[in-house]
Amino acid sequence: MITVERPVPSVVPDFGDTTPTTRKLAIICSKGALDMAYPGLILANAALGEGVETHLFFTFWGFDIITKARMDHLKFTLLGNTATHVPQGFGGLPGMTAMTTHQMKKQIAEAGVPDIREMLGQIVDSGGHLWGCRMSADMMHIDEQDLYEPVEGIISAADFIEKTEGAQLLFI
Questions:
Q1: Is the predicted pLDDT of residue 163 greater than 60, yes or no?
Q2: How far apart are CA 57 and CA 129, in angstroms?
Q3: Torsion-angle region of 79 (φ positive above 0: left; ψ -120 to 50: alpha; else: beta)
Q4: Which of 55, 30, 39, 13 is nearest to 150 (CA)?
Q5: pLDDT of residue 126
Q6: What is the signed CA dihedral for 21, 22, 23, 24, rounded to 10 degrees?
Q7: Rounded to two decimals, what is the model's pTM?
Q8: Contact in structure between 43 and 27 (CB atoms under 8 Å)
Q9: Spatial contact of 168 and 23, defined as CB atoms under 8 Å apart
Q10: Which of 30, 64, 88, 129 is the most buried (most CB within 10 A)?
């Protein structure tokens, strides 16, 4: 476990704009790697800070972000990730995933970015909605008691589309 002292972030982001909005944002989180979990959560937090109604839909490996047994243990790997600019052969070496995960978590903490659980808490505290995908849950034998408690439910894709009618959609 990495311990880095940092200031406690505010629970609700405030970007100074108090103008009411009718905007909606729907984010589909489909990947559960550490580096793929943050983009959707950061965008959701920013949208909520701007007063945008925000819904996140966790599907396939994105379920790892909201599954109690996995959410605190997301990994980062070099293997198959050409954006790291590291030769791919290094990614397959023993211990590389543990080392790169440790390094990424350290950099995240040093930047003052909350961990996954804290970020999800901020989203919920700011009025955001968390949903699990019914089809993925059935495929992976996941039910609601396996999930982070603030997840509102496991719903079908059609239900999510209905709840987010008129929303801007992001697929991550």
A1: yes
A2: 9
A3: beta
A4: 55
A5: 96
A6: 130
A7: 0.84
A8: yes
A9: yes
A10: 64
pLDDT at residue 102 greater than cutoff 50: yes
What proportion of the chain, given as a percentage, has pLDDT over 90?
72
Give the span between the Cα atoms of 28 and 106, in whole angstroms. 26
89, burial (CB in 10 Å: exposed 0-12, middle 13-18, buried 19+): exposed
Q: Give the H or E element holding residue 125.
A: helix 116-125
- The letter for the amino acid at 166 is G
Half-sphere exposure of 161 (CA within 13 A, CB side): 3
Ordered strands of the 129-133 beta sheet: 153-155, 129-133, 53-58, 24-29, 168-171
User: Given the structure tokens 């970015």, which residue do they identify?
Assistant: 113
Q: Per-residue pLDDT tens for 3-31?
A: 444 444 445 555 566 566 789 999 999 99
Structure tokens at 1: 């476990």
